[in-house]
Structures
1.
Amino acid sequence: MVALWGISFDGTPISGLVVEFVKTARHFHQRGIRVHLDLGYDIKADKNAFFRPYTDEADLLPEWIALDRIEAVQGIEGYSPELVSTVLAEVIGRGDDSRLRSVMNSLTATLRDRILAKWTQLGISFVLVENGTLPENVIYTRALYQAIEEYGNRHRLGCFVLWRDHDLMWQSEPSSGKYGRFPYPHTPLPVHSPFIHYVALHEEAKRRTLEWAPHLRRLSVLPNTFTHRRAEVTPHNAGFRAAHGIPEHVPLIARFTRIVPQKRIDRDLHLIAALPGTHLFVAGDPAEHPGEFTRLRELAGSLGVRDRVVFGGRLAPHDAEVGRPGYSVRDLLAHAQLVSFLTSYDYESYGNPIGEAIASGVPYVTSHYELYQAVYGDKGFRAPVLDVRRHDLPDMSFVDEVAELLTDETKRAKMAEHNYALGQRHFGEGRAERLLDELFLAPMGERTLASVVLPVYNEAANLPAVLDSLYHQRGIDRSAYEVVLVDNNSTDDTVAIARRFAEEHPDLALHVVPEPEQGVACARRTGMDFASARSKNRGAGADERFLLVSADADCRVDPGWLAELLAAMESGKAAIGVCDYYYAPEHFQGRPRLWDAISRTLRCRAVTFALFGGFPDGKGFAVDRDAYDRVGGIEIFYQLRNGKFVNHLSDDWDFGIKVRGSGEEILYAPKSRVEINPRRVDHAIDEVITGRAYGSDGIIVMRDIRVEEPARETDLTEAEALQAWEFSIKDFTPKNTVLPVLLTPSLLDDDAVIEFFGPELAERLGRRIAEIKDEMRVTDFTPIHSYKTPCYRLYFEFADELFARLRATVGEDIGYPPPLPSCFDDVPPERFTEFVKYYCEDRESGDAHNYFGNGGVF
């Protein structure tokens, strides 16, 4: 998961801006991205909300949106609604900033720093700005631009900001002149930035924007879109009319809008007065403009329609989740015969209520506002339209047209069906999703070649050294790689340490990404998915090969680790590169038996990795992003332990098996070295000795080995050393000598592999693999767990010969196969292979898993 910061310059809990933010943010949410929204209370000076705390606003929005704000803004001395209004009047209105210049500059810098601190705290990776160009608060806008530039440079991000203007000077009350006249000389122009992609709602808005700001290079058209689902009466909303005192049989006109003078709700009151028996429902916040609300109530009384007009307060947005408490705009539409949008001529840009009516299958009536034709009329949508340039209030011709539509159900149905079909074509969700996919903001510099993914959980003690080793990589420029630290619910100072490191080392991009589901597999997948998605929008570098690299927070990488790994991957053209892993011998001084068991395992691994490429271990490997995506990324599997589902530990191995099974090559990079933290042995030595380091009975899960008690520092007894070695070699041999050829039998035709096994053994292994595959009726052995049974069977059948080859290649001290399970003592030799099958297929007891150690030990 990563985080999106949305900021609305509207300063209201529900408006067209907020509704459009919700729709756009849903696409990010569905990608697993956390969503934060600042409603802009601390920006707009004319909404009576400056510094007002949030109360019930969250109830109007989907639960996946976290209402947020830059809390520290309230403490900035001098920053007030009075100052914002003064700047708008003097600086924008008259172009005189002489009196306020120093104050504005100081406040801009302070605001910028507060914004940066908030984004850093949350780990923001995407920003969505709604209406930031409209110069209601140029101090905040300038601070936002500066924050974007500094944040983008600090974290080496790509285009991580989507800046959408719903209103601009020529669309928002141009007749008032409060912003001046075109070309609006005192309004700050939109900044051309590598970090910002601007969005206009339609072609006319784009044309006018470029006429005003021709320097912009990233400006796209992204129309508002709507969820096309016909409104209907359901058990949830059946009581809507009764709850608001509206008789069931009367015609109902819906008006959902802000209650402000510019929306011209007075026109609806005059319309209702001319339509006896018809009711009007106005959904909007009466407290936003108390004077206008009072005026409308008095007008309703003077027109004699107060009993037919319901001011219903705020409703949840049109696209609010079904089942939320209270009513939404969609519930209102289920009971309405018409939607009204009789707004001011020069106030609207898009007219969302019309789009929402169309998408809900409800006819609408509208005024001919300035951009109506550009958005709806020219596309062929049908509706009664009031020409407010000729008639300020509904005239009789317009009233008659509306009355006919209210009384003629067939005409309403045909009009609604026509508009609904057109709406799907022009404003369907799919169009927005396609455009967002093209614009999907990938905050990564175009020179970045690799992301190092580092899952962490309470690693405060180890993290400084790990990050330092990643920072001081030799042979590779820091602009060519980044670090993606995935925090898996740490409760210590892990995240604070990471953020402090990022601040102190700005030349290495470091992203902190949260993953709420516990488990290193989940964290690794989140980090790699995050990096993969972002790498595809690196500008000029988007088509270059990109590598996803896994590291471990309790291990140390050598100074040449990354450069050697990337160089090996480039020269070998393999899909996966596997590192060399080692322990520091000095840590085991005084424990020669334990060190002997470890070093023999590592020697065996070096031989088989050189032959087969090995399999990735989370401690250090790289994978080509395209190969990663082709196989579906890291897959999380779950097992039952003590009645609860837990995620399977071996995601790295299983991922490598998927890649190998897809026909891709795995390469061993012996010069790319990772030092394993000895705590894996020190604090789990008893489990290592008994082969239960990661569970038993087939349950393989991560255990936390950071325990309070001191590590065992004495050497193993001879019996313990033998048992530890036997479990290590039993775990190693099926995985590293049998599994590669099981997955890729063509390896048995390779000269080096034939030399290792010997021609006769290689031939028999190939034949036996084909027999087992046919007997088990499998198409391949890549699905998780499906390879274990055949690996175990082949181990038992060929153990003596396999160990002979290891002794010949690695050294005589490898010895002979450990004793067979006692259950084979009474099995006749001629039936040995038969009972090996039963033993390995017995999933109920898990005995085979326990025999083989149930996970790697060294």
2.
Amino acid sequence: MSEDLSSDENVTITSTVPVSINCSVYNPCGRNGYCLNTQEDEQICSCKFWWNGATCNEMSNGGKQVITLGILLAVLLAAFYGLGLFRRIRKKRNQPKQKQEPSIPIVRLKFPTVSVEVFDPSRRKYAWITGILTFIFAMSTLVVKWSILKPIHDEVVYKYENNQSVYFNTHSVCRIINFRADFNIFTFPIACLLILLFMIITKRASSRHNRYCKGYLGVVIPLDFFGHVKRTLAAVIFAVFADELLDIANELLTGGRESSNQGVIITYLTQIFRVFVIGFRRYPILAAVYMDNYFTLICGTLYAWLDFTVAIMSAGLCTNNFYQTKEQFNKTGSNRTAEMIAYYGTGSKLLFLQLFLDIPRYFCLSYICVKLPMVLIKRIRHRNIPDKQMRREQKDLLYSSLPHSAEARYVKKLFGYASTEPAKNRLSQILRRIYAWRDDFRFSSRVICVYASIFLLLFFLTVSISIRTLPILNKIHPYIQAFADLFAIFIISRDPVEADAKGAPPDFPVPDLAVPFLISIYVALLVIIIQLLFMLASIRRNLLQSYRGDHREIPPRVSTSNVSYSTGSFHFAGYLIGYVIIGYALILFVSTMLTMSIAALIIFTSVPSLERFLTLIIPPILFTTFKLYINKLLSQYVFLQHSGEVLSINNRRALMVFLYFNFFLDTFLGFFAAFFRILKSIIGGMFYMCRLDYSPLGRKLETMDAGFNAYCGLIYMETAHRHPVLLFFVSHLLRDHLYPTKRLSKAKHNWHLAIFLLNNPTLIYQRKDFLRNLHDHDTKMMLIGRRNMKKLSSEPLPTISQPKDVNSAKEYESLWREQRF
């Protein structure tokens, strides 16, 4: 019997057992070791963790030291937190009861606004009708999709059962609908025609170009990204883009569309053309809602129905997610459909999965097809409102001065006119801990559209990966096992005697991948969703901070970096989507490794590579944690006055002696701290990849992060164009100009202006007369459209007569209230 007891305790001890019985018959090593057969038909014991001996029944010195250090650390933690709890209880008991002072009554003034009802009963009625019709329409389209997919499913199942090439033949209409066999371009010419018609009836706002074509033939705006009018409809339209853009990204990454006669540049140009076509296909719908007149709404409604019909036919008869066409089969040469049928069976399971993947897309398209006629009906009902002389920008701006708008409520709270007390309802108090709803803030359409696209993209990505990956997990299992063995050999040192033994178990036995992979997918999805929701709250918090000039979380705005802020705002949506996808992939990889390790420990009860890794990592973790809490205990109760409540030194001499010896001790501890710093940075970078509001480079280097720059650009651009005080003030000026109640003389107007500027002296430097006299180049760069300022200032705004009766005023106010939805 040979026994190696002189080696270090962290190295696995291997001992030879003087028996000739095979390990499969008798295991003399017990639960603390592995029994292995050598080349000489001898049995050896490879001990786990800190065990040694011939049969691995003795605790090594290293094991005893680790247990001792763990017990001391537990006692230290109990003492530290126990003393803290004792101090809090004692402080609470000794705290004198303060008498409740009488509260000072706050005088709440009445806010001068038009007397209108805040809640419109018809709005809730329209919402219920829209929801019910959307559900009925979506379920009807799913039934139609089922009737289209059923013959295709039966065809591929018949070919699979007869050992034929599994694909389906597309319908003849696909040659008309699709371009290059898999790209829907049928509605593109119709969309271009509608955009041209909308441009013809659009009147330009600039007086410089109104002399051509009598002021018509203007650029059609699809959406005001800085506004918050019709946000739900815009978000649903942008959510539909997610699936089509995901297909383009997959083809770019896998090179599925590149052929031998087609270069890389042509491939990328083709994908860019596809992106433009996808954008043009939804452009008329957004433009019709933004222009908000009878003609555009009728054209948009008819076009939405046509596009939905073509989308159902294209997604059913021409292309499918899980059923290959003949063209796809000849192009790729792989029989993916046969693999899917072999795993999910020849029943209707694969058919149901295809319909489940189509549910969000069809509900979004159904909402668009239902919402547009409802908007048209609302527009017809309010045909007597005197708003024909106003542009859409003026209509949206007038909404900011209504009493129930977010801007008006923000100003009310600034002046103390609105109640800021939280709701006393118990359910509301619980929900406020999760997300505190504020009625004085609304996210812009851009933020809502980006989040809608991301959430639908995550749904498609998660479901598609789950369904497509499960059939091939059994095939890649041997390759993952081989990679795990190589990783264990090169990264985690393996005992050479054990490596030469016959029948040695693998260092990392890979379990069945199906359950760990599914758990990893949904863990990654949950982490990304939580991070996105936290980021949504950060956007609101940072915007409110920026409104009041608070720069604690984001750096202050510099006028010389306006171009950088503008370009960063351009990149916000694209960067966020890209960061989310990369973060999703990284978290999926890390969670897959963790779930595989946990599953291996549960199934096999012992994983040698993990045991070696824990043997290496547990001692420094225990030592570092022990040293950390020793420092905390000494700092709070020995070296600081009043148990750390005051940052003043106590026991100065003892502190100097401690700092002298701690200088040398922390030098060795710094090696472990540096390793943990790198590890924390990697893990934190993975989990915070989708958070543009946090830079992994730190506060001093955060400007080098393109994602954080894009986030700062969004905050600064939204603050400059959506500040609630600015919108409320300008809206009141516009309302007073359009609906004048009394006219002031020029002397009174100048007197009021002088008093206003005396109370707000900083606004003197922002007046047009002051800026016009400046010749500094930097000041010219800050002006927007300075060369047209004189002409725009001299152009009179349209004046609308004041409604004579109260009913027309209420009817006019209700229009702005409905535009928000």
3.
Amino acid sequence: MVAFADRHIGPTEAAQRTMLDALGLGGAEDGPTSPVETLMRQAVPASIYTGPEAAVAESRIPAAASETEALAELRALASRNTVRRAMIGLGYYGTITPQVIQRNVLENPSWYTAYTPYQPEISQGRLEALINFQTMVAELTGLSTANASMLDESTAVVEGMLLARRASKSSSNVFVVDADALPQTRAMLASRADALGVELVTVGLAAGEELPDELFGVFVQYPGASGRVWDPTAVFEAAHLAGGLAVAAADLLALTLLTAPGTMGADVAVGTTQRFGVPMGFGGPHAGYMAVRSGLERQLPGRLVGVSVDADGKPAYRLSLQTREQHIRREKATSNICTAQVLLAVMASMYAVYHGPDGLRSIAQGVAGKATLLRDWLVEAGAEVVHEHFFDTLTVRVPGAAAEHAARAREEHGILLRVADADTIGVAVDETTTFTDLHRVALVFGGPTERAFAFVAGVSVALPEALRRADEYLTHPVFHAHRSETAMMRYLKSLSDRDYALDRGMIPLGSCTMKLNAATEMAAITWPEFAGIHPFAPADDVQGYLELIDQLESWLAEITGYDAVSLQPNAGSQGELAGLLAIRGYHHANGDAHRTVCLIPSSAHGTNAASAVLAGMKVVVVASDALGNVDLDDLRAKIAQHADELAALMITYPSTHGVYEEQVVEITTAVHEAGGQVYVDGANLNALLGYARFGDLGGDVSHLNLHKTFAIPHGGGGPGIGPVAAKAHLAPYLPSHPLAQRAEHFGGYTFDGAVISAAPYGSAGILPISWAYVRMMGADGLRRATAAAVLSANYIAERLGSHFPVLYTGENGRVAHECILDLRPLKEATGITVDDVAKRLIDYGFHAPTMSFPVAGTLMVEPTESEDLDEIERFIEAMIMIKAEADAVAAGRWPADDNPLVHAPHTAVSLIAGEWTHAYTREEAAYPVRSLVAAKYWPPVRRIDQAYGDRNLVCACPPVEAFA
């Protein structure tokens, strides 16, 4: 049987020998180590290098399992979870995922293996799906503009608070929080406000309690966590009179029946789209949302899809106003949001496309009607239902007996109710709730054992007449055109055909690790025992999840050299924030609250600086030297300058420049001697696994990107998971959660730090992917994957170095898992820009490498370990051919303004429509290499005018006439 590692790692042994020969290491087999180990010894500094024997000795990671064995173990873990009818609510609901969406989106690599749409010409399908999402959210919330998704509801509320603070005319630090807000949201607001100096004031808004005299914003839950539906218009008006902004967290399904928050005067609406066909998954991933009124578009965090035009003047989608994003603004950023939840946003948008406004309204009527029927049955049984008006959630008063009622519902009827307090039960109805479920709930409260009744959906709902929605929504044809499964399937196929994902070819993006997401790793995420679990289900019902989490925490701790791991952060950026807040908590506990300076190298990821600011720290930039390493002299100077207030150093290892810094231990020692802590950014862990550990480098805390190193798909910019790992002294300050099933984590640690995600274990629904990856690779397989990635990157650097200078290398002339190709000399010699090369690569059938990061005018190339030698050679050939084309421009064969590079990419229409007047031939445009004739990817649009889209901001579905 072929080992899984051999399926995962692209280059065969024979291919690796060929690559090693090109690196001059073919004869190394005669030495004491293998050629691959010789390469790794050349690349990895001796001071941190771990030999193969030590790397796997006494490992907690079991020997590699086969794919069949891993699935069997996952089945055993899944069997320890009990799937009950969850009627807990609190932002998480049972929902029906249409099979046409599950099969053609969630389980389709054309969607889940795509990258963030920074190359819009080859991302038109995903961008259209996200425009649908934005349109859906904007129209349901009654606001002008929505972004392309957030991480979850609670983080979206925090972002709403931050937006209100920067957009408000008030100088106050007070933010008013609805007493009926979701408990996890209140906890997260408290954590984040503390670091930012925001004063939270909790007010019973529905009860008519008065607002403070001064505030910069007010937050309302609509409907409330208790289920109560009321009119917050007066509260929004009062907030405006005080100079503040009004933020509403609204249930989108309820908004199909209720007046939209924008109509009532809200400036910002936030929430989750989970109940639009996305399984609960023990907490995620789910697409949060944010929408704003006109005038606040440039304040929106996250990504915003807009409409522009291509070179032929045809409509085309692209990311708008990117200068707002954290990776550009760095320490001036107002948000550190990086990974969105694109795959889940696509699912939610397609749920709306498939059902349309009438279908969504019918689902909502059914939910509200069943909730009203349950109210009637409970009142008939003598129970006290607290609120007169509600959508889907009832609060039932049972003095002193709440726990008993909940226990009976669970044990006798398989139903999970929410114990709000000793006297109060919460019951939430959703799309999946049956009449049998309602009857069983009524039985718990003393209702009759038998019942005869007739029910027609929508006959009776407990919504106030004044708040019944009267306006139309989702009027665009896309929400009316795909009712049959045939039509929906074809629509989804047409969109995926416009995209480029890993199922088409290599995505050689430096810093992003677009590796294989194996089908076996993905298999378990749709099993009901993982997908159908509420994040606040009792511990006894989630023993399989808790064991999987415990195992994964232990494996990640070993891999990184740390003592404790939290899986709560649901993006790398949130893991960064969690790690920095842990450092902040540590310093405060030691009486060092004055330590607020965070040193960050100039080459660092953009989220680093943004995360530091949101953790309440002051960013001080450290220069890089000519080799791309941290400038030690400047580091020492900055440490001396800020010694008394030094909180932390953030450093990426291997560096963002794609090299292993030789002096890393010297760097971390210098910071520790000054009383600071060391944060090692784990974005490039794919170049380190099995060969060195962050904890051994001197790291105190790190985040890891499970969506990069550990095989969770990017999904076009989400889902992501960014666990945070730390040494024992920082463990107490790792993320906590008020609704966690247990306090203990691997190693016996109890965390008491900031709440980072809405759910206790973040996006736990996709943890089986990384669990399966580690389980099937084993410690040895992980080490082999690292070596294969480094070998492939060095092979590309060697083959292309004579055509494009490799900007940075280590002391032995080697790179890590990625290399930076310098295209600035090409521009000087030929006039061809890095943009021209990136767009021309599309004609060759490739997604471009990372452009102009971390150095403008360069391409950062990362082949990963998953790409085989044939695909790597195809990329190398394309780059060499493009260099020759640029040289032809310089030589005068083609004019500077009329050549295949400046007009790239070429669509099929551009080649056949009208008379061909270019200086180059159609064949040179479309088929620069003969292999493309058999399998050509045709981009759907030509080069997009980015500036036009920002000048003419349109972020909702354009009319059909625009495409005529």
